[in-house]
């Protein structure tokens, strides 16, 4: 036989070749594994190398990976978080799904629809080739596995097409995956259709495995796709029949502007009969409770006390108000034993990722925003803290009531938001007849009107006790959902759905904290972000995407001491400079000349006693969590006793005594700052949104 004629030398050469191929394959596999770029814990910067404008508000962004053979490392069905800055220079993060796979080596692409008021849209709108994007991931619960189902039914709207396109590509480009994909893609106009060329190409290349049906609310002429809203009949015709091996995927933007309620309800109606698996990633669903599987980033606005329900089905309820980055508010509730499950989560002002909540259409009389649904959370709901040291300010203003509003709504079931300075806390009262406790707070509002606020039961036991302990430093109290009453003349009272935020100004002695190597740092002169580079250099800031000049900014660590102890806090910029009498440029010059100003700064600080508003926040460094403080606003004690004219210019709150002298109460923050102080905030400058009227 012919193969017996092969020589020994030929056999050896073939063996060497096989070994070489094996080594090369092993090296390629190993190197490919080592070049995964994503990190779920750390932000990584990727350079924008190409931007293709697809329409007036849609663009494709290509980002370069570190090497031509690098892969992003994103599992199919998951997404990444992108970080940028909005039009106000504030940091913003948002999830996006690349349209590329790990088979696309050396780069990844995002198709972005940029909305006029979108915060992250602003960042993408301003991005130019050469700029960098901070990315972290992967994120998400759904993870695609080849062959896990017989078919996917996909319902997408607007920019929700990108995760669908990612999954569809992975299925169709895998020759061993026989999963069928049926996609219904809804938009308002023809111009709104994203990735149409790519979708049509998939349909042409894989006609047996991929079907796409377009639906437009305002179609052009002629048009052979669906018209109007997606209906149950459309899904029956263009999606697989529900079965145990069929999975439905939905991704709809929030809020969905072009789609009627039937778009979601018809899918649930269609799937419910046979218990088909339905993975939802929408903003709207049905008129009864339906599960939403989505990583939605929310910020907690309100968290009520635990209430007793009137229904016989459940005993207890805790209500919440959430908001997203665009300021859309949604009500939420947790019942019975699940309330304790989330005791340490969903803290006001903090942000969380939520998946597996349930939603229900809200009666028009109880809507709290344009969003038409409320949420129900139980122990199957995944709630994860958003990874950030300092949450941003709430994306909307807090409108507080006036005395006229209280008079108008007295003894009506109308919720009132009110801001006051607490000047006295009265003793506890107990009503043995119905076993309730209460405590009255005497306070002054922004109009210089005094009033009584009654805290009942849990509010008295929790917030009331804390406020009583800090009454000597005149805390600011911001109250949500109070009820106006005429029981104590004209007063306000808590109810179970109320929420209270309180702040504290503290009087402290200041000294310089030890072991400080520098008293300044280099920052962008536009967004004030720290940048490790030379002062005076002109650069393109990666945080605000502006051509800026680096400048010096003062930063000092202080030890603040009062009768209760000592804490360390940082103070920045002008707040620091008024304490030490030296500006940032002088500090930088002294350091360049090897002049140690520590003793000079220490002597200046020892002369001061200040009244300061502190911000507390959690920080993590090298895996260790710690509590930190920073000074938001401070007043030198001597400034509190200037002549009357200077007092009126410098301080926001004052009283006139019966003798005609001006006595200063502790300065108060604005309503927005009251919210900010309830948890760490990003902007440490006092808000100018509200100013108290001065006395004539």
From TrEMBL:
Pfam families for the chain: FAD_binding_6, NAD_binding_1, Rep_fac-A_C
Known cofactor(s): FAD
Molecular-function annotations in GO: cytochrome-b5 reductase activity, acting on NADH
Keywords in alphabetical order: FAD, Flavoprotein, Membrane, Mitochondrion, Mitochondrion outer membrane, NAD, Oxidoreductase, Transmembrane, Transmembrane helix
Compartmental location: Mitochondrion outer membrane
Region: Disordered, residue numbers: 659-696
Stretches assigned to the FAD-binding FR-type domain: 41-145
Listed GO biological process terms: electron transport chain
Principal cellular location given in the protein's record: mitochondrion
Enzyme Commission number(s) of this protein: 1.6.2.2
Superkingdom, natural source: Eukaryota
Amino-acid positions noted as binding FAD in the UniProt annotation, renumbered to this chain: 95-96, 111, 113, 120-121, 162
Protein name, UniProt field: cytochrome-b5 reductase
Transmembrane segments: 12-30
Protein family per UniProt: Belongs to the flavoprotein pyridine nucleotide cytochrome reductase family.
Annotated source species: Oldenlandia corymbosa var. corymbosa
Recorded GO CC terms: mitochondrial outer membrane
